[in-house]
Amino acid sequence: MTVERGAFSPERPEDRRFMAAAIRYAMRNVGRTGTNPSVATLIVRDDGDGPRIVGHGVTALGGRPHAEAGALAEAGDLARGATAYVTLEPCAHHGRTPPCAEALVRAGIARVVSAAADPDPRVDGKGHGMLMDGGVAVTRQVMAAEAARTIEGYLTRHRCGRPGVTLKMALSRDGRIGVRGGGQVKITGPVSDAQTHLVRARHDAIMVGAGTALEDDPRLDCRLPGMADRSPARIILDPNLRISPEMTVARTARDVSTMIATFETSDPARRAALAAAGVSFVACVADPETGRVALPELLEDLAATGITSILVEGGAMIAESFLDAGLVDRLILVRGAVEIGDEGLLAPIDVDSARQRYRLLRQDVFGADCWFDFACEA
Question: Which residues take part in binding Zn(2+) (predicted)?
Fold first, then answer.
């Protein structure tokens, strides 16, 4: 099949079915591909008996090789004349390997159906152009929004120069998140808690404030069976360096990457003790108006380390700081069945106010808990 150069082909009835399957497959390595996004490719062939998948691939751990390479290798000669479904526009730049768009042309792929657009200036339309120059029919933007949600951290990093931020909070039925100074309050049930660990596994890093770390001494890892290696890196927002080497995050820093964001003026002796335990540091500065950590600058520095997605699970202060700064791209509110009462600490945002500021993507029930998954409109 050939097409006029520079032209796009229309969507076909079967395209959404196979793209949905590709998006599900892309979730396989979310949070494990470094600075590259987790992308999936399906090679689909129809020899008259209906379409069938002859090759599939997903971005490998660490980010290489790309999904297209794995799918083409599995399909072999069956790729010639077939359709490739790719959840992100194929890359067009030369690196350690040739561009994926070029590999698809060489393999004889007749048609490429892509979902999300790639904002990387080295790609951004160039992948589609390379395909069409090679005589490949291109159908773009098929289930683009759904595909983008699986790689939103990567997209935010390219568009905004910072990691994508998901803020997650558990709220009691009366809108409280805990009791000030009272330690951790159990709000959600076991089914909901398992979902929390799944969310953790899909992010590069998890962030809490020093207050949460000191009150709860949390592990901040993924404790689903068989998924311990999916634990995200841990970031503690601790400008005055109150974390001690005896705490869990410090004692396990050699097992799970742990970073503390702190002022340059923080206690050098404590810094040395934490560093000896395996903790690393990132410098942060104070916002001149609030005195709190300047979050935009911190996020830029974290992006420079290769982090593309952060799950914020801290208390009211850190949540309020991210909300006030307009840095929350995804908001997950989990409303439990328990009530805390007037002594409880009110959440900085509740479900009703979230509906006014964000777009509700989905609502789920896990056990006795109700999950609300919101996205920023921008």
Answer: 66, 91, 100
How large a percentage of the chain has pLDDT more than 90?
83
Architecture of domain 155-375: 3-Layer(aba) Sandwich (3.40)
Is residue 264 a known part of a binding site? Answer: no
Q: State yes or no: is 68 an active-site residue.
A: yes
**Three-state SS annotation for the chain:** CCCCCCCCCCCCCCHHHHHHHHHHHHHHHCCCCCCCCCCEEEEEECCCCCCEEEEEEECCHHHCCCHHHHHHHHHHHHHCCCEEEEEECCCCCCCCCCCHHHHHHHCCCCEEEEEECCCCCCCCCHHHHHHHHCCCEEECCCCHHHHHHHCHHHHHHHHHCCCEEEEEEEECCCCEEEECCCCCCCCCCHHHHHHHHHHHHCCCEEEEEHHHHHHHCCCCCCCCCCCHHHCCEEEEECCCCCCCCCCHHHHCCCCCCEEEEECCCCCHHHHHHHHHCCCEEEECCECCCCCCECHHHHHHHHHHCCCCEEEECCCHHHHHHHHHCCCCCEEEEEECCCCCCCCEEECCCCHHHHHHHCEEEEEEEECCEEEEEEECCC
313-361 per-position pLDDT tens digit: 978 899 999 999 999 999 999 999 999 988 888 999 999 999 999 999 9
376 is in an annotated binding site: no
The pTM assigned to this predicted structure is 0.91
Average pLDDT score over the chain: 93
User: Is 223 annotated as belonging to a binding site?
Assistant: yes
Q: Is 321 annotated as a binding residue?
A: yes
The CATH architecture that domain 15-150 belongs to is: 3-Layer(aba) Sandwich (3.40)
8 A C-beta contact, residue 299 and residue 165: yes
Mean pLDDT (whole number) for 148-164: 94
Domain ranges of the chain: 15-150, 155-375
170 is in an annotated binding site: yes
Catalytic residue among 14, 68, 152, 297: 68
